[in-house]
Design a protein that fits this description.
There is one protein chain. The chain is mainly α. The radius of gyration is 18 Å and the shape is rod-shaped. It has one domain.
Length: 50
């Protein structure tokens, strides 16, 4: 965390790149579509549909 704060203070362009990369990673891993698919799989297993 300290490294990230130092980067934000001392290297703003690197910090902006880190922010963009984090947003992209979050958007790709936690989209509504992925959440719906995960719920569907979980409920299908629960219902015995597999």
């Amino acid at each position: 965390m300290i490294q990230a704060l130092n980067e934000a203070a001392n290297a703003p362009q690197a910090w902006e790149r880190r922010q963009r990369a984090c947003r992209e990673r979050i958007a790709s891993r936690f989209s509504i579509e992925r959440m719906a698919e995960a719920y569907h799989r979980a409920w299908s297993v629960r219902a015995g549909e597999r």
